[in-house]
Amino acid sequence: MQGVSSFRTTLSRTALGALAGLVAAFTALSVAELAAGLVRPAAGPVTVVGGAVIDRTPAAVKDFAIRTFGENDKVVLQLGILAVLAVIAIALGALAPRHRSAAAAGILLFGIVGAAAALSRPDATGIADALPSMAGGAAGALTLYFLASKAAPSSAPSSADDLSRRGFLVAAGTTAVVAGSVGGLGRFLSGRQGQGAVASRDGLVLPKPASPARAVAPGVQLKVPGISPFTTPNRDFYRVDTALNVPRVDAATWRLRIGGKGVTRPRTYTLDELLARPLIERDITLTCVSNEVGGPYVGTARWLGVPLADLLQEAGVRPPSQGGTADQLVARSVDGMTLGSPVEDVMDGRDAMLAVGMNGEPLPFDHGFPVRMVVPGLYGYVSACKWITDIELTTFDAYDPYWVKRKWARRAPIKTQARIDTPKPFAGPAAGTVLVAGVAWAQHRGITRVEVRIDDGPWRDADLAPQATADTWRQWSYPWRATTGGHTITVRATDGTGQTQTEQRTPTIPDGASGRHSVFVTVP
Ligand SMILES: Nc1nc2c(c(=O)[nH]1)N[C@H]1C(S)=C(S)[C@@H](COP(=O)(O)O)O[C@H]1N2
Ligand SMILES: [Mo]
Known about the structure:
36% of the residues lie in helices and 21% in strands. The chain is built from twelve helices and 18 strands.
């Protein structure tokens, strides 16, 4: 009898300990949240640990995450971190009634891990970044030590046990409530810091372009149900970046610095100074190197911005073909991301720009407010720096930017691709004429031909919509006389240089996927 009851007591103490662990972890995160709200929202422990995980994720795993979770990859990562934290907290908590100091030290250790992660981030600004995790770890350790003392074995008779259990639950509940308000206050403070940025965006009136985009000609947008719109609305535009917290930059305090190799006149610009310059407006299709054949990470917007080549010329920069010493332009964002573009490309006359507007409004925060780079013809990771704050002229030999350090190619012009938007894979269109349609892109070279093949039949020319510009995607359609049965529809495009896209399948790593898109449908 004695043995069974003491076993039960141990069991319930372990459960109480586990609960204490969870409350301690919650307290740690809440206190960290408050500290981050006071010091730096981007230094919150889940954000920095998540960021550090992203920094260390092998290219293949990152690609898998984007493929599997799409734009929810960051939510999945953060939930994963919280789940791991909860499991560890429960384990340490279960240990706590018997090994109080060791368990508390364990929680403290997690604060140290968080602090190390914070300091390892490319945007770490100093020791203050470590503060939220350290404060959280300390608060969590104290909480566990205190609560464990309430759940610790006592020599008192078992009637007193119920009393002490009640005492524990009251203490744990009170702690959780206090922690909740502390965390809420932290959230509130973090949110307030972004309000200046929101107000600066709301108050921004975009100037009229000195060089407006051509009106989108009639016919550029085919009237085929299921085809992508020629202009991608901002809310539907794909988003790919490493930012767990989207930077909210206040336009009033934002600066852009241009300096480095071959820059004879280094300069810092305010947003107003950029907006006072003659602006260009262009339709340009952006593509991510992580886009699979047939994938969704491509979109077209009407960008408004400052021609980048003008700014570089004023700074004294010459392209390598004119004797310039720098062949790589490294753009750096406020969150420490770096992207490197060939100087030759951004100065060869194409519409490389520092964009301030996207489809008629200031850049959305997700897409780089207040200023981002856009370079027609180059994948996003080697050109499209969002939240840009620094441009450094250097060489490809001297410096590898973020993704190049992680095995992606130094140079990455966009590969010619065609995508079938309709019918969808495994659709069951009725026999008769089925309109097969989609988009094809080869930015800065243009699309001159799209062909469709049914099963192993001959390649047939698709009907091309007029080309808006060589920097945009081009729509195509093909009236297919569908017969009963299963069919594979395949598409291929030819670019403005006469090159037809290769049939050779390559993965997205290191410089973009190649191969043809095909969909299988069953005609009933
Ligand atoms: N600061 C910053 N800029 C960035 C990135 C990033 O992670 N951080 N990702 C790049 C990548 S990989 C792509 S494809 C484009 C995507 O731009 P979008 O999110 O506006 O579509 O932004 C580029 N610019
Ligand atoms: Mo990308």
